[in-house]
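Methods — Computational structure assignment.
A single polypeptide chain was analysed. Its primary sequence is given first, followed by the predicted tertiary structure written as structure tokens.
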Amino acid sequence: MAEKDKTGDDRLHIPVETAAALVAAQFPQWEDLPVRPVDLNGWDNCTFRLGDAMKIRMPTAIRYAAQGEKEARWLPHIAAHLPESVAHELPVPLAIGRPGEDYPFPWVVQSFIPGKSVAASSAVDRTALAGDLADWLLALHRVPVSDAPPAGPHNFFRGGDLSVYDGETQACLTRSAGRYDRATAAALWQAALSSRWQQAPVFVHGDVSAGNLLLRDGKLAAVIDFGCLGTGDPASDLMMTWTFFAGESRALFRSRIGLDAATFARARGWALWKALLALDKPDTDDGAAHQGALLVIDTLLAEHRAAEHGAPL
């Protein structure tokens, strides 16, 4: 039986037995395949391996419940329009399951893509990854959006107007005052709010992060977890500029993707918002997460100051 997570939020803890029972009841052709947890789970979905070639993705809360069906609708469309030069693997939707076994949401079966996430890799050629990721995002931006959903609650407004998080960000700035240059952070945030994407909407992945990029033989092989997929402004997909890349790799990513200074200013706002949220969480470990968030914030503030003084980025 799925139960509320014991960490204090409203997400469900989903045991492997529930996943296996759902498969057996709804997809008997797969009932003999082993179901087992993945090594590193996500936040929005609880994921299980189904045999060797498939995975089960089960939303952990109602706010994530529409993600699987959205992926099932749009992943084949995106895959069909990506050129072979950047056709890194995407999950293939295979089936949509119904609520059952005391589990309340739709769930999905997708292909399992072998590889090691960038987040779990000890040695990554960041410059090569920067070029590959920029090329992939540029290709994603050329995929026809058709009637794909615009930014909204379904993807936590990725691709949309950053001002939706103004109240939350202002509260974080107040609570964490004294841990960084608050005046510069506030100025960065206002700069991020001062422009809008003026071009046609493009597809956004919504959660471009080291955990959602898979490597094989040290090279980018797959992009996974499209639950925050939507259309609009690509700025929210640029956060790895500061959260992962640095020096040569950062410069290459920025130049290869070729977006304007205003878009990167909005991207700094997205990265600041996310880092402030991480900093605002109670410290439940050795403080490494907080130190990482502070490092990102300091990097963003330094770049904002440089931009204000006209320095090349």
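Note: The longest strand covers residues 45-50.
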